C-alpha cells in the first residue's frame, strides 16, 4: 500500500513539473519583439515597460 501511494505521488509531481514547463514555454513563445528605429521612442517604451533596452549600432 505504501509503495502504491509513493509511486502515485512521484507520478503526480512529475506530471505537474511537465505541465509547468509546458505552460512556461507556451507563454514565452507568445512574446514578439517590436523593433524600433528611433532611439527616443525605444527608450521611452523601455522606461515605461521596465524592460531592458538593446541598441544595435550599424
Model description:
By secondary structure, the protein is mostly helical. The protein has one domain (about 1-50). The chain has two helices and no strands. The chain has helices at about 1-30, 40-50. The radius of gyration is 22 Å and the shape is rod-shaped. The mean pLDDT is about 80.
N to C succession of SSEs: HH
| Terminal Cα span | 67 Å
- Unreliable segments (pLDDT under 50, ≥5 consecutive)? none
Major beta-sheet overview: none
Q: Structurally, how many domains make up the residues? A: 1
Quaternary state, please? single chain
- Level of helix content? 55-70%
Shape, principal axes of CA atoms: rod-shaped
Give me the Rg, rounded.
22 Å
User: Which class best fits the helix and strand makeup?
Assistant: mainly alpha
The total count of strands amounts to 0
What is the arithmetic mean of pLDDT? 82
How many H/I helical runs? 2
Amino acid at each position: 500500500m505504501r509503495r502504491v501511494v509513493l509511486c502515485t505521488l512521484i507520478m503526480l509531481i512529475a506530471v505537474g513539473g511537465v505541465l509547468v514547463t509546458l505552460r512556461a514555454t507556451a507563454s514565452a513563445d507568445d512574446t514578439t519583439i517590436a523593433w524600433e528605429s528611433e532611439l527616443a521612442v525605444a527608450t521611452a517604451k523601455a522606461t515605461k515597460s521596465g524592460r531592458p533596452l538593446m541598441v544595435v549600432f550599424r
